[in-house]
């Protein structure tokens, strides 16, 4: 959920801090997804649409569900006939509880993206409580297994966001380069060290190749192996992104002072860039 501006060709090489900033932004955006899908599911429930989307908090949905049941708003076959039903004021109360919880998540996102880490930690506590309530209320029912998996994924993502924040805090402050230093860097063809190789690519592994291109003496492959997207250059893996559910991401490597990037943006457009120039792209359908 972070994205790349249209002036990619003017982008300077990312520092470790900038890379962590991008990863932090990606992770914290998942809190906003929880807000959006919780609101959507709540509205669908109130209009009896019989639809449900994952990536939603469970407690607000459960609260409205109970309000509707106790007010007799479900079809007659849902009831035994001897229930004591409440007035619509009770539904308004349960909707208010759900709204308060959603607003708390929204505040967590708003302050979290400003790096108020206490709010991100609070979001993790809220969602951990939501997950615990889901498990207590449903057990490991096969009907809810996907919901449980997505809850675990969101918890991991928020925890990763907190981890990235403290990694950024440990980095030394960056000193902006002087105009003279920038000129020297631009004039020195090999001023940027080559990126470290993570590992040799397993060319025999079952992989889905998204894009492939040749440029500047490099054979560039953007592919997915299992749950990991890899940037492979000349048979070596230089950067990777691992996720159960893929979000927008950007993989980067420097080879002979050339910036090579591959990834997928929020519009589901996959790309390969060399020094900001797009050399391959296509829309991702699935």
Keywords:
alpha+beta, 286 residues, 5-stranded antiparallel β-sheet, 4-stranded antiparallel β-sheet
Please characterize this protein's 3D structure.
By secondary structure, this protein is of the alpha+beta class. Helix content is 44%, strand content 20%. The chain contains six helices and nine strands, in the order ααααααβββββββββ. It has helices at residues 16-46, 58-70, 88-112, 117-138, 145-170, 179-187, and strands at 199-200, 208-215, 218-225, 228-233, 236-242, 249-255, 258-264, 269-274, 277-283. Strands 1-5-4-3-2 form a five-stranded antiparallel beta sheet, with no helix packed on it. Strands 6-7-8-9 form a four-stranded antiparallel beta sheet, with no helix packed on it. β2 (208-215) and β3 (218-225) form a beta hairpin. The two termini are 17 Å apart. The model is unreliable at 1-13 (pLDDT under 50).
């Amino acid at each position: 959920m972070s994205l790349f501006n249209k002036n990619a060709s003017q982008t300077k090489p990312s520092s470790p801090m900038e890379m962590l900033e991008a990863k932090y932004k990606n992770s914290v955006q998942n809190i906003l997804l929880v807000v959006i899908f919780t609101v959507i599911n709540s509205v669908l429930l109130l209009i009896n649409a019989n639809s449900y989307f994952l990536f939603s908090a469970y407690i607000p949905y459960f609260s409205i569900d109970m309000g509707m049941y106790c007010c007799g708003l479900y079809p007659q076959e849902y009831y035994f006939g001897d229930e004591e039903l409440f007035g619509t004021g009770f539904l308004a109360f349960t909707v208010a509880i759900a709204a308060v919880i959603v607003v708390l998540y929204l505040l967590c996102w708003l302050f979290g993206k400003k790096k108020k880490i206490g709010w991100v930690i609070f979001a993790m506590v809220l969602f951990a409580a939501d997950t615990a309530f889901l498990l207590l209320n449903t057990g490991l029912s096969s009907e809810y297994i996907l919901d449980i998996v997505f809850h675990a994924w969101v918890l991991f993502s928020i925890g990763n966001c907190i981890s990235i924040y403290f990694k950024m805090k440990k980095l030394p402050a960056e000193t902006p380069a002087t105009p003279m230093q920038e000129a020297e860097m631009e004039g020195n063809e090999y001023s940027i060290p080559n990126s470290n190789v993570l590992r040799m690519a397993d060319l025999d592994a079952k992989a889905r190749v998204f894009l492939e291109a040749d440029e500047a003496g490099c054979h560039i492959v953007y592919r997915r192996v299992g749950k990991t997207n890899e940037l492979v250059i000349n048979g070596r893996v230089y950067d990777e992104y691992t996720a159960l559910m893929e979000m927008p991401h950007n993989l980067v490597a420097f080879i002979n002072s050339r910036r090579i990037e591959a990834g997928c943006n929020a519009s589901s457009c996959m790309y390969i860039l060399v020094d900001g120039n797009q050399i391959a792209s296509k829309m991702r359908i699935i």
